[in-house]
């Protein structure tokens, strides 16, 4: 049986880790390098580092911060934000990232997924999808530029296309649930996980240990990502893993 992964996420803006609600009202959560070292000690399975304002501000992810964080880590490390070319991917992988996550750039140029997969392998290519439910369409719509710009793409169809183009993993964030701590978007997560044959990371909405249990038992999510509840030490990675193990969910 494949074990489930618990993944803290560092959303970085102006060199600091931040966290908001539905992508707005950001508050400071600490230094990214210090938090990376902390999560390495805490037995997190992986770490995701997203420079959340890079695409919106039209600049590259901070290579130096990535290098410093990678030096602290013994666990896999995914980096995203501001990646627009295969050369950008190369620079981040060389700086110490194990995988790169692309979101806005993949929507603007879907061929970038194929280029990256050809050069570095699908295992390095994570496509992040920020999705919001549209009641009129009765479907989830993809947003770019840190949740600022609505696209015409539907999340489930885009996830399928991304995998066909070479994505080895989907990082799926529910904008509706993000930061509210009421639980993951189970319907969205299951819909995407049912459609693709690669691991899906559920993101947005974790508020307690039970939410991790629900997303792992009610959907096919391979991993669950959380930010504020870990950063502000409302729960720990260890307590989540213990809770899951006690209830029969296989974790690392």
Automatic annotation (TrEMBL):
Family the entry assigns: Belongs to the HisA/HisF family.
E.C. number(s) listed in UniProt: 4.3.2.10
List of catalytic residues: 11, 130
Protein location: Cytoplasm
Keywords of this entry: Amino-acid biosynthesis, Cytoplasm, Histidine biosynthesis, Lyase
Identification of the protein by name: Imidazole glycerol phosphate synthase subunit HisF
PANTHER family tied to this protein: IMIDAZOLE GLYCEROL PHOSPHATE SYNTHASE HISHF, IMIDAZOLE GLYCEROL PHOSPHATE SYNTHASE SUBUNIT HISF/H IGP SYNTHASE SUBUNIT HISF/H
CDD domains in the cross-refs: HisF (cd04731)
Subunit-structure text: Heterodimer of HisH and HisF.
One of the GO biological process terms: L-histidine biosynthetic process
Organism encoding this protein: Thermoflavimicrobium dichotomicum
Pathway: Amino-acid biosynthesis; L-histidine biosynthesis; L-histidine from 5-phospho-alpha-D-ribose 1-diphosphate: step 5/9
Molecular-function annotations in GO: imidazoleglycerol-phosphate synthase activity; lyase activity
One cellular component (GO) term of this entry: cytoplasm
Role of this protein: IGPS catalyzes the conversion of PRFAR and glutamine to IGP, AICAR and glutamate. The HisF subunit catalyzes the cyclization activity that produces IGP and AICAR from PRFAR using the ammonia provided by the HisH subunit.
Top EC class for this record: lyase
Catalysed reactions listed for this entry: 5-[(5-phospho-1-deoxy-D-ribulos-1-ylimino)methylamino]-1-(5-phospho-beta-D-ribosyl)imidazole-4-carboxamide + L-glutamine = D-erythro-1-(imidazol-4-yl)glycerol 3-phosphate + 5-amino-1-(5-phospho-beta-D-ribosyl)imidazole-4-carboxamide + L-glutamate + H(+)
SUPFAM superfamilies: Ribulose-phoshate binding barrel (SSF51366)
Pfam families: His_biosynth (PF00977)
């Amino acid at each position: 049986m494949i074990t489930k992964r618990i993944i803290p996420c560092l959303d970085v803006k102006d060199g600091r880790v931040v966290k908001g609600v539905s992508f707005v009202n950001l508050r400071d959560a600490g230094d990214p390098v210090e938090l990376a070292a902390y999560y390495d000690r805490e037995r997190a399975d992986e770490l995701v580092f997203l420079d959340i304002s890079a695409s919106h501000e039209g600049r590259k992810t901070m290579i130096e911060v990535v290098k410093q964080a990678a030096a602290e880590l013994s666990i896999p490390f995914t980096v995203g934000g501001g990646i627009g070319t295969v050369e950008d991917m190369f620079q981040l992988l060389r700086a110490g990232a194990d995988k790169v996550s692309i979101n806005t750039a993949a929507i603007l140029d879907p061929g970038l997924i194929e280029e990256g997969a050809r050069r570095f392998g699908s295992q390095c290519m994570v496509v992040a999808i920020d999705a919001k439910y549209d009641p009129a369409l009765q479907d989830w719509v993809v947003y770019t530029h840190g949740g600022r710009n609505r696209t015409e793409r539907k999340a489930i169809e885009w996830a399928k296309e991304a995998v066909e183009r070479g994505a080895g993993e989907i990082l799926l964030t529910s904008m509706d649930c993000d930061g509210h701590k009421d639980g993951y978007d189970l319907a969205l997560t299951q819909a995407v996980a049912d459609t693709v044959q690669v691991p899906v990371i559920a993101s947005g909405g974790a508020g307690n240990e039970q939410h991790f249990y629900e997303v792992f038992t009610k959907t096919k999510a391979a991993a669950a990502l959380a930010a504020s509840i870990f950063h502000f030490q409302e729960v720990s990675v260890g307590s989540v893993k213990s809770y899951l193990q006690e209830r029969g969910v296989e974790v690392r």
